[in-house]
Amino acid sequence: MVDRTGCQLDARDPIDRDGGALCGTICPQSLPARQARAAALQMVGTRLAALLLLAATPAAAQTVRGLLTDSVSRAPLSGAFLTLIDAHGVERARAMTNAAGEFSLTAPVAGSYRLRSKRIGFRPLVSPPLTLRAGEETGYNAVIDPIPISLQEVVVAGERQCDIDAGASVAALWDEIREALAAVSWTSRVPAYWFETTVFERDVNVSGRPRVPDSTVQVAGFQKIPFRNFATDAELEQQGYVVVTDTGWIYRAPDADVLLSDTFLRTHCFEAKNGRGDAEGLIGLLFTSARERRAPDITGTLWVDRKTSELKRMEFSYIRLPEDLVAVGAGGRVEFMRLPNGVWIVRDWLIRMPYAKWKQQAMAMGMRPEVTGFREKGGSADFIRAGDGTVVYGTPSVPVVAVARPIPIPQPAPAAAAPAPVVPTAAAPSPTPARRRDRNSNVIDREEIEGSTAIDAYALVQESRPNWLHQRGQISIRDPHAGEIQVYLEGHPWGDVSRLREFNTSNIQELHFLNGAEAQMRYGVGHAGGIIEVVTGVGVPKPSVATAPAPPPPPHPEPPPSPPPPPAPVDARRRVAGVRNSSILTEEEFASSTALDVYALVQEFRPNWLHTRGAVSIMDPTAGDLRVYLNGVKTGDVTRLREMRVSEVRELRFLNAGEAQMRYGLGNSGGVIEVWTK
Predict the structure, then answer these.
(1) CA separation for the pair 91, 81 (Å, rounded)
(2) Domain span at 450
(3) Number of compact structural domains in the chain
């Protein structure tokens, strides 16, 4: 059951000699200021009074403001973190640059400080000493040299370092990891992003098979971080990461602040390791418990991309559990993600806590606990948007009214809470329900299109009439494509269903579906798979059945004039190209780009492609990752885009999970970026 108090997960009953389960309590935990928190109980009254006094007294702030730019391009750097370091090297303030590259940092007291800015994968900037006087504002424009740090050159020697700064490889890795973790910690204190998250809880047996159906909850709102650590540094050092209480065992999970703490660095040793298997292309910073430690602890690996130097994920396991319990598989996994604006977040997380029962050992050696299963709790971010409504990751699970209409953001009204009509219950029925007529399964009209969130015709059909895309007629030996569904624009052949991506929904009046018989009756043999007709309403003659007869009959009967010719395909092509298709990036659109590789090109024009993620599988953690296909052939993950030159590319296409698996099969639930060369 879930113990809502303290955000802890209770894994049922305490251990006993009658076969009770081990109690696990996950503390996905919070950390404002752990060191101050340790003495908070004794000083609550005094500190509260002091805080109230400070709030009532205007503070004289000493601030440094300025602009952060790239030394080569002279462009402002948005989404970059800067820290204010005092004379002892201690961080005193942290801020992120806005869209114009501007920053503002306030020191707690007057004195001498330095500015430090670190971009992931680049050498850090450290300013000369700046003297900040009480109540004054100092200006300083910082310039960063884009000198990359290559982790490709990091040599993994396998040497265990209990001092994080002792080894060159370990120090280089830690420098990149520390910056990402500090950014995650900073984001956790600023709830400026709207999250739609799926949180799950389940019981599995020792082999990982579910015992009962998952308990899944959809959570939406402004969140700081998915899980937090409520323990202080002193508690973690003395008690460890698993604590026995009267009601069970509490499992503590490490968050960004724990990993950055001096206590964690002091009680763990570090070692660089190469990634293999699903960690191919990554380099890991392995952390293990120090030899003198006796408390329950964690060991694990922080994985960093060798090419981009970005922190990808953390995997950890619990060791030295109470009662000498051996629980292989007890631990967790946390995946990190950098948003396009430079902010770092926790995207996915999973924690596994063991169940156990007492079992008699052989040879009358007494009783000892044995693992019988695990309680798993985790979650995944499905959709993230900034406070101004900008989508930074994923797509909303359902068309939420709160996104489309101006309502108070902190507590968005659910769709069911929409205001009811003012008409009393006993009054005559309102004409509004008359609009909710039965939909024609073979037509998508303008009213239905306006109620959709789809951008192009293909996505519209997938959302409203997915069965259209799975139609197939008889296959001809002479023409293997005879049974495939085809697309017609204003009565003219346009191509296969992939061409639907070229039509923006704002330009469409109706879509019609004709089955094999109807299609061949209207357009002739060779259309056994059916047809999707796209009607834009521009230059299309009205059908005779829909036109009213002319009031005065003609004086002399004449043969009806031939209808005006339909618009040429080139006109339709121009009409379709009037609005950019978000799933296609053509050479015409990126001709003026200065990007050298395809990864940079996608970041510039379609950054949301890079943050798409499909369903995560415990059996295959990479199942939801985005794949890259070059001219229809699987090439690898998105990092391979850095190896492709823009000058050789003709077109890029993005396929979502459904489209990708329909075209390339299972294992592509994260979507596909197709690269088509000249």
Answers:
(1) 12
(2) 443-536
(3) 4
Position 30 in a domain: no
Query: For residue 607, which of 634, 585, 635 has the smallest C-alpha distance?
Result: 585
* Planar angle of CA 94, 98, 104, nearest 5 degrees: 45
The Cα–Cα gap between 155 and 151 comes to 9
Backbone angles phi, psi at 244, to 5 degrees: -90, 125
How far is 276 from 1, CA to CA, in rounded Å? 37
DSSP state for residue 437 in the 8-state scheme? P
Q: Please provide residue 19's backbone torsions phi and psi, each rounded to the nearest 5 degrees.
A: 100, 20
CB 135 within 8 A of CB 60: yes
Within-domain flag for 469: yes
- Domain end marker among 536, 551, 566: 536
Q: What is the mean pLDDT of residues 143-153?
A: 67
Mean pLDDT across the stretch 458-463? 84
pTM as predicted: 0.51
Q: Is the pLDDT of residue 603 over 70?
A: yes
Length of the chain counted residue by residue: 678
Residue 548 lies in a domain: no
Distance, CA of 99 to CA of 80 (rounded, Å) = 10
471 and 378 within one domain = no
Beta strands 111-117 and 510-514: pairing type? unpaired
Which residues in 361-404 belong to E strands, given as ranges?
A: 367-386, 391-394
* Strand, helix or coil for residue 292: coil
- The reply to whether 107 and 200 lie within a common domain is no
What is the model's pLDDT at position 169? 74
* Domain-embedded: residue 316: yes
Q: How far is CA 115 from the centre of its chain?
A: 31
- Residue for token digits 């690996």? 301
Same-domain check for residues 197 and 326: yes
Instruction: Read off the tokens for 489.
Output: 């624009």
Residue 653's CATH number = 2.170.130.10
pLDDT value for 166: 58
Q: Provide CB contacts within 8 A for 288, sequence distance 6+.
A: 160, 268, 269, 270, 271, 299
Between 466 and 557, residue with greater pLDDT: 466
Q: Are residues 283 and 178 in the same domain?
A: yes
Tell me the per-residue pLDDT of 400-413, one tens digit each, with 9 for 90 and over: 333 333 333 333 33
Assign 542 a pLDDT band (cuts: 50, 70, 90): very low
Residue 230 burial by Cβ neighbours in a 10 Å radius (0-12, 13-18, 19+) = middle
Could you write out the DSSP letters of every residue in 44-109? HHHHHHHHHHHHHS----EEEEEEEEETTT--B-TT-EEEEEETTS-EEEEEE--TTSEEEEEESS
395 contact partners, CB below 8 Å, separation of at least 6: 383
Q: Are residues 139 and 75 in the same domain?
A: yes
Q: Which two tokens stand for residue 252?
A: 């503590």
Asked if residue 452 and residue 515 are part of one domain, the reply reads yes
> Cα(395)–Cα(658) distance, rounded to whole angstroms?
14
